[in-house]
Write the structure tokens for this entry.
Amino acid sequence: MVNQKKYLVSPNIQNNTLTQKIEGKDQDNKKINTRVIQENSLTIFLNNQEIVTLMCILDHPKYLAIGYLLNQNMIKKNEKIKKIDYDDELKVIVIRTNIKTNYEKILKKKITTSGCAQGTIFGNIYEEIKRIKLKSKIYIKHEWIYDISKKVNLTPSLYLEAGAVHGCVISKKNNPIIYMEDVGRHNAVDKIAGYMFLNKINTKDKIFYTTGRLTSEMIIKTVKMNIPILISRSGFTSWGVELAKKTNLTLVGRAKGKKYVILSGHHRVKF
Amino acid sequence: MVNQKKYLVSPNIQNNTLTQKIEGKDQDNKKINTRVIQENSLTIFLNNQEIVTLMCILDHPKYLAIGYLLNQNMIKKNEKIKKIDYDDELKVIVIRTNIKTNYEKILKKKITTSGCAQGTIFGNIYEEIKRIKLKSKIYIKHEWIYDISKKVNLTPSLYLEAGAVHGCVISKKNNPIIYMEDVGRHNAVDKIAGYMFLNKINTKDKIFYTTGRLTSEMIIKTVKMNIPILISRSGFTSWGVELAKKTNLTLVGRAKGKKYVILSGHHRVKF
């Protein structure tokens, strides 16, 4: 097992509220007790406006809410967060900023653009992303790709405890430092974005590892965070690859064992 | 490989528009050509109302649209479909029914209830589902669980060609007969629902196999289709298990190799 002390934040498997013990039977008709992941709802308010209710794991509601609003363009990167109130009985979080917000229009647009395949994303973000070119000159050494995957797999996690979650990890060189999990892979990314924003962590020299697939929305969120390298053990979709090429993102997929495939930005991989 | 002729419908790997060839590099810095899955948007109209735009694989737009509307309670089971028009340039599909529809209210509710983890689902469906008790007396033999998984894995599929998709399968006893895939697992379920509805296939004596996780939304859709047994090679979430117990659905998860776990309705599994 990897020592969790090497992380700034990593899954808290000691927290019993994140999983639930359930009685069942196994393939030998034997009674068993097993842990399953505990979903919850989290309702996010921005100032006095209700924005969304997410199904999620409630380990980091603050980071999730902030990351969600950032990735939906509802909070700008230079915005000051005045106050965060979380009510863990009602499972409601209220984020207060100095700027008066009114997102009715954007919220309306969501109705016709959200797709099951991709989580939910509000309008106009595609347009913004297409104009970005990631300029970071950092590189990743060939062997780090295997090394990062291995370290993540050996870190104690809710995935190893109960399954049914996705993991997202920020790595500096080949050292994973932030590890977030959620039932929704987009929630896991949003938790990462929220954590890095509130803790003012530089993103340009980091590597992003995810267990989820490399769809366009995953690319959008990585580019929005200004992270130049994205690795996944899962596969690609065509729009994901297209967007990665346009934005100069290094995209490494199907990273399993010592194998992987690079479909964009291979100049950042050092052999 | 499993003979595809045994299926009523199964993945069409000959259709070149469903994947895209992309040049990249592998772990040995060698140029490679690989296939990735081709996402598309599909905009669904019900009569004269725009309902949603889904990111999906466009192999069965008709089944996807009908299944989506059924699972969102926008078409009732006894409703007559008057006409289906699909424009494959605009990627728009229009479903026409005899009943005048107005879903502005339901569409509005969606804004605050959709969760990334669970795809999108419109209001009030939870309430309806909780009152259902599946009464089907069919059973599944212990060894079929392994048998179905194996047959699905050995069927030619977009997953084997390009990865990054989920599969959903309907099986009669241990014989898979309908196999749908999509970038979104909920789209794959909706394609199945649409196919079974339009082809008037009995659901009560079928077994549903999915590669996706057993979240509450997956349970809801299975129960809505009136299918009594649901198997997944992935894990469970707490709400999924709770809802399966309430509705008397047989829930088998973590089906890998010869292992599996039953967390609800084990009276339908014959040892």
In short: Chain A has two domains: 40-130, 140-270.
